[in-house]
Amino acid sequence: MAMERDEVRMSDTYWRQLEETDWVFRKMVRRFVKERDKVAVAGISLPGMLILHKIIREGEQRLGDLADELDFTSGAITALSDKLEAGGFTVRRRKEGDRRTVMLDITDKGRKMAELNSNIGERCISLLFEGFTEEELVQQSHFYQRIISNLEGFSDILLKLVKENAEAEASPNLEQKPRAVTKKSNYLSY
Prior knowledge:
mainly alpha, two-stranded antiparallel ribbon, Arc Repressor Mutant, subunit A
């Protein structure tokens, strides 16, 4: 009996730690995006600069590939590309032989602007990770890779749960697992 109580306490403690970790993680992501989005170089946001550096490194890019490789939505890539092109930093062209494929390439103006401001990316990294030991950085990289792995199928799993909850509500005769009573939490969750 005492052991069961310890397991429940440990489970409650573990859950509280999960909630705190989730809160801190989401707060960190929101803060990063908020701060990042305040920065523009010649009217171009930092994600736009990322696109320019990728083109400099690897040559012209398909818009769909940019979205996949940089983890942006296709809408975000289109908006960033519009802004880069309007500023004269990139040019879009249709691929020969496949007019459906849109390629994005950098202009001389874009190359000069990116090269002039190449120290901004380095400073971003040092500002974020300054003060961590090399061992802590290795651990962080490992933890971030695990989180990235945990995100595989994240939306599909949650959407399936949403559907199951809606079906359970629509069919009260279906047996549903009892839900745990939610205790007051110190952290806001979805």
